[in-house]
Amino acid sequence: MSYTNQLLETRSSETNTERALRRTEMVELNVILQHCLEILLGFLMPYGLIISSYVCILRRIRKTRFRRRIRSEKLILVIVITFGLTWLPFHMMNMVEIAGTFLPEDSHAKARLQKIWLSFRGFSSIITFISSCINPVLYTFAGKSYIKHEGLGFMARLFEGSRIESMRNNRQNQKNQDQEKKEVVNHLRDRV
C-alpha cells in the first residue's frame, strides 16, 4: 500500500471531532507564535533600543555644558516611561491570551483569563494607540521651550558642544604625550 493511500485512509477514518481538535491546536499554536513575536519584536526590542539610545543621548548631554540639562533628562525619562506605560498593557493582554492557550478547555482559570482578555483588550489597544499621539506632543512642547530659551541652534550646540569637548580632550591627550616624550628625552640626555 502506498504512502498516499495510507494517508487518505487515515484522513477518511478521522472523525470531525478529531479534525476540529487538530485545527484548534494549530490555531492556538499560531496565537502563541504571533503574540510571542509581537512581544519580542513589538515591545522588548524597541524598548531596549529606545533605552539604549536615550542613555547615549544622556551621556552626551552630561558631557556638554548644556544649560537645560536637567530638563532634557526629565524629558527623556518621560518619553521612556510613557512608551513603557502605553505599550505594556497591550502586551500583557497578549501574555494573558498565551497563558490561556496552555490551560485545558474546561478549566475555570482559562474561562477567567478569557474574561480578563475580553474585558481589557480594547482598553489596552486604545492606550497603545495613544502612545502614537503622546510622543509628538512631548517633542513639540519640549522643542518650543528649547527654541524659545536657547534659539534655533540648540541641537547643533548640543552636538557641537560634545564635539568641542572631544577636541579639547584630544588636545589635552596630545599635550600629555608631548610632555611625556620631552621628559623621556631629557632623562636620556641626563644619562649621557
TrEMBL record:
Q: Where is the composition biased (Basic and acidic residues)?
A: 177-192
Name the Gene3D superfamilies for this protein.
Rhodopsin 7-helix transmembrane proteins (1.20.1070.10)
PROSITE patterns, sorted: G_PROTEIN_RECEP_F1_2
Any GO molecular function = icosanoid receptor activity
GO BP = inflammatory response; phospholipase C-activating G protein-coupled receptor signaling pathway; positive regulation of cytosolic calcium ion concentration
Record field: transmembrane: 32-55, 75-96, 116-139
Q: Which domain of life is it from?
A: Eukaryota
Residues covered by region (Disordered): 168-192
UniProtKB keywords: Cell membrane, G-protein coupled receptor, Glycoprotein, Membrane, Phosphoprotein, Receptor, Transducer, Transmembrane, Transmembrane helix
Q: How does the UniProt record describe the way this protein sits in the membrane?
A: Multi-pass membrane protein
Q: Provide the G-protein coupled receptors family 1 profile domain boundaries.
A: 1-139
Where does this one sit in the cell? Answer: Cell membrane
For the keyword Mitochondrion, the answer is no
Record family assignment: Belongs to the chemokine-like receptor (CMKLR) family.
Could you tell me which PANTHER family the record lists for this protein?
CHEMOTACTIC RECEPTOR, G-PROTEIN COUPLED RECEPTORS FAMILY 1 PROFILE DOMAIN-CONTAINING PROTEIN-RELATED
Protein name as annotated: G-protein coupled receptors family 1 profile domain-containing protein
> Which organism is the protein's source?
Onychostoma macrolepis
